[in-house]
Amino acid sequence: MISVEQLKKYFRGHIGIGEPLANLTTFRLGGAADFYFEPMDSGDLAVLINILIEHGFPFDIIGNGSNVLVNDYGYRGAAINLERGLCDIGFGGDLLKAGAGTKLASLVDFCINNGLHGMEMLAGFPGTLGGALIKNTGAYGGSISDYLVEVEVIRRGELKIFPREAAVFGYQFSSLSDDIIVSGTFRFPDGDKTEMKRVRRELLLRRSESQPTELPNAGLIFRNPAMNSAGRLIENCGLRGLRIGNAEISPRHGNFIVNLGGASSIDVIRLIKTAREKVQEKFGVTLELEVKLLGFSEGLRDEAETLVSSVA
Asked: Phi and psi for 11 in degrees, rounded to 5?
């Protein structure tokens, strides 16, 4: 691996060594990453990605850490956060361009304040634009790709811009999963600010009532199976409120696991394993993980590796 001193000749952003990730994830648990990077802009990110690829060093984009479970024993790789350097929102003519590190909450607010309809459906969603494009995040019959004009990505180390038609989007899916999202350009129809604010307020209230927003969590643990709800399946197995260590399947929503304070990643993994096994046994449905497991493939702990092999 290139030395930090050499890296600083090419990379202009922040570099952290042995950076604790617990406070950088919404689960508020997990160990440290060997390296932590905050690129200053898209060019800085491209330089970094090429260096990491050239030296065969593992890396992961963690967004704002809202969809990540980090091993207590850390991540033998580089965690990259785009929130500071790729978070600009620009609006001109009828096009809006936003960086991949833009928080969805910020994008929702910007669109509403500028009378742009379509993003208010994502009020209350955690995460950043990059992750939302990769997952084609949506709600209430709409998806973020509905308004996408073009997307800027890093593909095989090169910055490229593709029209929306060059990608494939589906339910909780896009063909961009192997790319690193840099920015997205959108065309939103005009909307009524008062009505959009009402919708935002209603959705935020609805989510606060149905989801455990007051406790650290990673968002939805499992993807919803076709024509079904992972949360409902888990609840119908009687698993609401199941606690292992200091982690708990939320009594409010079966597809959320919460950190009650001091939970370990193994506590969470055991709950994931239990939920999967019970749903498979009762309904014959195999739940697929939505949350990203970080640092569990290096054999840092035998028990963790055994458990992860059954859920990954």
From this structure: -100, 125
Query: Which domains are delineated in the chain?
Result: 4-80 (3.30.43.10), 89-196 (3.30.465.10), 230-309 (3.90.78.10)
From residue 13, alpha-carbon distances to 3, 43, 80, 212, 282 in Å are 15, 11, 11, 35, 50
What's the pLDDT at 253? Answer: 97
Q: What is the pTM assigned to this prediction? A: 0.90
- CA–CA distance, 12 with 60 (Å, rounded to integer): 19
Dihedral sign, Cα of residue 98, residue 213, residue 81, residue 294: negative
Q: How far is CA 16 from CA 8, 13, 130, in A?
A: 12, 10, 22
CB within 8 Å of 103: residues ≥ 6 apart: 64, 83, 87, 127, 128, 129
Q: What letter does residue 284 receive in the DSSP assignment? A: -
Alpha carbons 130 and 29: distance in angstroms, whole number: 23
| Polymer length of the chain | 312
Name the phi and psi angles at 235, rounded to 5. -65, -35
pLDDT 10s digits, 114-157? 999 999 999 999 899 999 999 999 888 789 999 999 999 999 88
